[in-house]
Amino acid sequence: MKRSEINLLFEENYKKIFLLAVKMLKNYEDAEDATQEIFMKAYQNINKFRQESKFSTWLYRIALNHIYNFHNKKVNPRLNRGQNLNKQNMDYHISTNETPEKVLYEKELYNKLNKIIEGLSPKQKEVFLLRYYNQLKFNEIAKILKRSLGTIKSNYFFAMQKIKNELQKEHLLEIKEVR
What we know:
Layout: H1 3-25, H2 28-44, H3 55-75, H4 77-80, H5 100-119, H6 122-133, H7 138-145, H8 149-169
Helix pairs in contact: 1-2, 1-3, 1-6, 2-3, 3-7, 5-8, 6-8, 7-8
């Protein structure tokens, strides 16, 4: 693979990998660091990419493994080797032309959704993030996670059910049945 082809593949996938890192690590600076490390790993191991699947599938697998390891080092100080463990909350950016009521509602919804996502099982969480935020197809997710298509769809269904139920309980989502 030529260097220009590699650079193009990296450029096409950078935002997707960064978004995944932000959603999983819940810290902008950690996500930046992790994303840089993911692309360094990918570049160092590009010769291991056998082109049996899409490049993005291979890259997401590297990303997920790295993000889990990165998170474990942050959570377990013994694995951390002296790195700073301070957690910085993501800022919620507000558009200046929104009403205060809308801003409060969206902030509450945003915070609640993040809390619900954190409460999902690890398998449901990774499927939900890859499908909802990265908009990957179920068959791509199945390849990335090395699970059956049925399992992926089931994990997504149950994640969506839990999110919907929790948002309804908090009266942040109203679903009207049509008869």
